[in-house]
């Protein structure tokens, strides 16, 4: 009672300051007496190292990671609010984190109590799924769909059809503006390919043809008044469903990626109770709901369409159709479970999440690699000369020739260009891993649920693993047995875990082959059809980062090669 009377009679300011001092003292006592004293910047109570990160800005988060690597070495720790993160950029420390075994102790990407649950991540989809059996089930469905020869063939065909449609716009812009008093119109290739990929990926994923590119070019170049453009627009097709998918959906998927970075990086108290932050947090949740509503509507519509067709009907090979029909009576190759019976089918919530993850990753990440590879090709004359020579040798600049998978395999120098681009700037420079039980990494024993960030870009720039890592040098990939399209064939040619552009271990990106096909076919289509020139050869690349690297501006001049 005496203590209570003292407390009630005390000055509240003094009490508050005393409590704050006690909290800060206890916070730093725990910090300095922690078991693993890994180097890293000193965190602040409640916000951790967010103030230090803010000095670099959200768009420069990888630069912050590089700066910390220079200061603290190849393994260091940071705090995002109260969440400790161990960052690693040495291949020798990656073995356990990149273990491909189903027995891996590092299956989870993020801690079980992750804030991502606020966006509806409760053990569904593939990317963030922490339920191993559910993840394995979903991944089998996704892998079967993406690796289907029919699906891959149709994807390549759709890419060429879509590029042919897009080239009508690009030709028109070039024809109208070349030779004018104001000079040729600059085309922002970065935003153009982003919208092109949005149409292509959504068509591949859902079977619906939309008008994201049409909308972008009309708004940018005021093409709606041209008779020729109107004719093209009629041929390209546009209805309300397609518009919602190809215009609203790509915007929402981009926002969804930003939302994930925001919700994961900032502590819950800041996002929920501080004005400004709480408003943005509400928008994040609304974005997730809007995406779910759009996807559920598309799934329901396609499900009804399939139900009206005969069982022997030859269905389209888009991802949605394949996810809906895999392991049903329409599937000639139904998957068998461990007991010898047929596996079940996917729930609507799983299909929705898989579609969202595929669309977001495919649109954002392939567009980044395409734009950056184009920049390097145009910036370095010797690289451009060798690439154009490869096109001439394999395709003779014949724009009528349909690109085949056999053609793609012959483009060894282009393959090297793409891999060198991925080495310097992987779209996802970091990716989480969490240990389920106590484990040793980097000479330290870590308690369960410790969050690790393999810093892939740091690995790729580590002088222990790469000579002259800052230099863009595709030839380093030509010194390997580089006879195929895909990254899998290169993994054994370098030091283990030193090249991980698509992640590694059991969580390696299942869409990596499809991504390579997209990037290669788009680059070939562009450079065999057009002479491409940087609008400003001295301008640095305009890039950004919101969890995934983005090319904001790449101004070029295009001139059709047949002119």
Automatic annotation (TrEMBL):
Gene3D superfamilies: Cytochrome P450. Pfam families: p450. This is 4742_t:CDS:1. Heme binds at residue 509. It comes from the Eukaryota. The lineage of its organism: Eukaryota, Fungi, Fungi incertae sedis, Mucoromycota, Glomeromycotina. One of its GO terms (molecular function) is heme binding. The chain crosses the membrane at residues 12-29.
């Amino acid at each position: 009672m005496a203590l209570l009377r003292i407390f009630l009679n005390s000055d509240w300011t003094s009490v508050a300051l005393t409590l704050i001092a006690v909290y800060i003292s206890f916070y730093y006592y725990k910090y300095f007496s922690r078991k693993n004293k890994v180097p890293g910047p000193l965190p602040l109570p409640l916000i951790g190292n967010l103030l230090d990160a803010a000095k670099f800005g959200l768009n420069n988060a990888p630069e912050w990671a590089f700066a910390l690597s220079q200061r603290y070495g190849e393994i260091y720790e940071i705090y995002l609010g109260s969440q400790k993160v161990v960052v690693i950029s040495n291949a020798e420390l990656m073995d356990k984190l990149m273990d491909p075994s189903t027995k891996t102790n590092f299956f989870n990407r993020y801690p079980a109590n992750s804030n991502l649950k606020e966006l509806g991540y409760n053990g569904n989809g593939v990317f963030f799924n922490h339920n191993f059996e559910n993840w394995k089930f979903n991944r089998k469905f996704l892998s079967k769909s993406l690796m289907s020869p029919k699906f891959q063939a149709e994807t390549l065909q759709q890419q060429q059809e879509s590029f042919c449609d897009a080239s009508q716009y690009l030709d028109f812009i070039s024809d109208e503006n070349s030779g004018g008093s104001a000079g040729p119109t600059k085309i922002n290739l970065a935003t153009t390919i982003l919208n092109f990929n949005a149409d292509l990926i959504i068509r591949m994923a859902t079977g619906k043809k939309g008008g994201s590119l049409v909308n972008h070019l009309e708004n940018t170049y005021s093409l709606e008044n041209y008779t020729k453009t109107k004719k093209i627009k009629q041929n390209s097709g546009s209805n309300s469903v397609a518009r919602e998918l190809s215009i609203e959906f790509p915007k929402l998927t981009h926002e969804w990626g930003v939302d994930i970075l925001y919700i994961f990086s900032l502590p819950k108290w800041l996002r929920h109770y501080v004005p400004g932050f709480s408003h943005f947090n509400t928008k994040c949740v609304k974005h997730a709901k809007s995406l779910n509503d759009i996807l559920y509507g598309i799934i329901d519509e396609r499900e009804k369409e399939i139900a009206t067709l005969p069982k022997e009907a030859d269905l389209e090979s888009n991802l949605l159709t394949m996810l809906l029909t895999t392991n049903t009576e329409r599937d000639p190759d139904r998957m068998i479970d461990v007991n010898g019976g047929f596996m079940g089918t996917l729930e609507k919530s799983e299909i929705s999440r898989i579609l969202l993850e595929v669309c977001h990753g495919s649109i954002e990440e392939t567009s980044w690699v395409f734009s950056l590879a184009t920049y390097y090709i145009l910036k370095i004359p010797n690289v451009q000369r060798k690439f154009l020579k490869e096109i001439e040798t394999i395709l003779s600049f014949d724009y009528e020739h349909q690109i085949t998978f056999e053609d793609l395999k012959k483009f060894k120098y282009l393959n090297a260009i793409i891999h060198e681009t991925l080495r310097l700037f992987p779209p996802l420079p970091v990716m989480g891993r969490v240990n389920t039980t106590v484990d040793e990494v980097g000479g330290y024993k870590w308690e369960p649920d410790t969050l690790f960030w393999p810093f892939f870009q740091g690995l790729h720039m580590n002088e222990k693993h790469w000579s002259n890592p800052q230099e863009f040098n595709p030839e380093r990939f030509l010194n390997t047995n580089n006879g195929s399209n895909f990254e899998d064939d290169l993994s054994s040619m370098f030091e283990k875990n030193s090249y991980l552009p698509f992640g590694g271990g059991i969580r390696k990106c299942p869409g990596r082959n499809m991504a390579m096909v997209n990037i290669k076919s788009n680059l070939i289509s562009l450079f065999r059809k057009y002479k491409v020139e940087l609008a400003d050869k001295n301008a640095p690349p305009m890039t950004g980062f919101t969890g995934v690297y983005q090319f904001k501006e790449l101004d070029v001049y295009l001139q059709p090669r047949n002119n």
